Amino acid sequence: MNQYEVTVHPSGEGFPRDQELAWRLAELAADPAEVTDAVAEMVINRVIDNAAVAVASLGRSPVVVARDQADAHPAGPGGAGATVFGQPASRRVAPEWAAWANGTAVRELDYHDTYLAAEYSHPGDNIPPLVAVAQHAGRDGAALVRAIAVGYEVQVDLATAICLHAHKIDHVAHLGPSVAAGLGTLLGAPVGTTYQAIGQALHTTTATRQSRKGAISSWKAFAPAHAGKAAIEAFDRALRGEGAPAPIWEGEDGVIAWLLDGPDARYTVRLPGPGEPRDAILRTYTKEHSAEYQAQALIDLARKLRDRVPDTDRVQSIVIHTSHHTHHVIGTGAGDPQKLDPHASRETLDHSIMYIVAVALQDGRWHHVDSYRPERAQRPDTVALWHKITTVEDPEWTRRYHDPDPDRRAFGGRVVITLDDGTVITDELAVADAHPAGARPFARPDYVAKFRTLAEGVVSAAEQDRFLGLVARLPELGPDELDGLTVVADLVELPTGAAGLF
After folding, report:
1. Cα(232)–Cα(255) distance, rounded to whole angstroms?
2. Which domain holds residue 24?
3. Distances 91 to 67, 137, 272, 489 between C-alpha atoms, Å
4. What CATH number did the domain enclosing 388 receive?
5. 12 and 135 belong to one structural domain
6. 131 near 486, Cβ under 8 Å?
7. Were both Cys, which of 192, 228, 237, 256 would link to 129 (CB 3.0–4.6 Å)?
8. Where would I find the beta strands (DSSP E) of 309-373?
9. pLDDT at residue 461, as a whole number
């Protein structure tokens, strides 16, 4: 791995373009490094994972809206177009709109993969735009696997080095550049072209974190899809010879100087050198439960504690000792009254660890639909328990969250339950059971089981088998086979929504 110091440079300094972070990422995208078997295997797993959560969300409002918008934009003369989850492969739309529809479907349930370091990310968001362009441009499976590996690498490396949330910038600001880099790999583009696309993608996908604060709306699902769509459009402009603001990160009026740590900031970004494997995908992890990632271990812990707390009416208080992030983003440290509101949106509830622990403790399980139903959230005994739960930041859990060794990072916490007779029940869990270091790390059978569970009643067994058989051969697929990476919802009629402009 190479280490690069990234800092602000005044315009008059004459900062060389080949030392800019955007140029280094474009060089990484252009390097013909081989994909290892382990990386290819994990890419397949995450394509399955994305398809699983996408088909489970096809009837939800944001996904219906995004699909309707995509259907209004058929493929143009520049390529074959791309497929949309739920629809037959013969139905093609413009690739940027397929990325929009499919990216929204993948993100809607907050149920696919994650990487947590200095910044948070859902690197599986790279997959929909890269698949869409691969289908449109006639690339093969091997090229797509390489592109996905590069997209993951760039997003993970940026998230490891550069914190966005401390400055209230949404994490998709790392996604636009990572998709653009992946597109450079997919299309075999010159370094200069990918460099311009990366700069444009960053410039057009930087927004505030209000999308994840207070009354969280459906934009949380749209945000990464917008980043993928914007990156495709940026690459189209770059291919046509158009440029980007530069230096986009290091300029005196750039992202670092005015949106992040300021003119004196210094970040160390580590990137693979020439020929080194792009294996960052192996440091990421998916979700067993449909909720914010920091809730994963605490759901598992609450399920285990249920046998020790058979009557939750006797609970006097529950205190969750956890990391700064969990406390301030999904805990009481956020200061969001909406996180305690029984009438809150699903998007808000999946960012309320108080609600999540209450339901998991009472039910002994977590379900992507049932656990969020309004009647579940408004049940009086649940509301009473929910409002007895608080979080506190524990410096040790914060330290473990940011441990430089990914094998030692911890995203859980310690739960202290006090009953009405003074009995105290306590336990802790560092990582979710499905985490690579957890009790039951996810492997191919788990991804397949997740897909079959979420596809039940939406996708026939024959169509499930067809998709799983095809994706298992992803690195060997020819260009004419990539349209099979969609999944047809052949057991239901897909709804349409209200009319819009298109």
Report:
1. 21
2. 2-283
3. 12, 16, 39, 13
4. 3.30.1330.120
5. yes
6. no
7. 228
8. 315-322
9. 98
Sign of the CA dihedral with 64 first, then 69, 75, and 79 last: negative
- What pLDDT score was predicted for residue 210? 86
pLDDT of residue 417: 98
- The CATH number that applies at residue 91 is 1.10.4100.10
CA dihedral 368, 52, 151, 270 (to 10 degrees): 50
The string of pLDDT tens digits covering residues 187-245 is 999 999 999 999 999 999 999 988 776 777 788 889 999 999 999 999 999 999 999 99
Q: At what angle do helices 461-471 and 444-455 cross, to 10 degrees?
A: 150
- Quick check: helix, strand or coil at residue 246? coil
Q: Are 44 and 199 in contact (CB under 8 A)?
A: no
Strand partners, 428: 414
Residues β-bridged to residue 321? 392, 414
Among residues 403, 429, 455, which one ends one of the domains?
429
Q: Per residue in 438-455, pLDDT tens?
A: 999 999 999 999 999 999
Model confidence, pTM: 0.93
Q: What tens digit of pLDDT does each residue of 22-34 get?
A: 999 999 999 999 9
Q: Indicate whether 311 and 241 sit together in one domain.
A: no
- In this prediction, residue 78 carries a pLDDT of 87
445 part of a folded domain: no
pLDDT confidence of residue 441 = 95
Report the alpha-carbon distance of residue 219 to residue 85 in Å, rounded.
19
Count CB-CB contacts under 10 A for residue 237: 14
Answer whether 109's CB lies under 8 Å from 135's CB: no
Residue after which a domain boundary falls, among 394, 413, 429: 429
The answer to whether residue 471 is domain-embedded is no
Burial class (CB in 10 A: 0-12, 13-18, 19+), 3: exposed
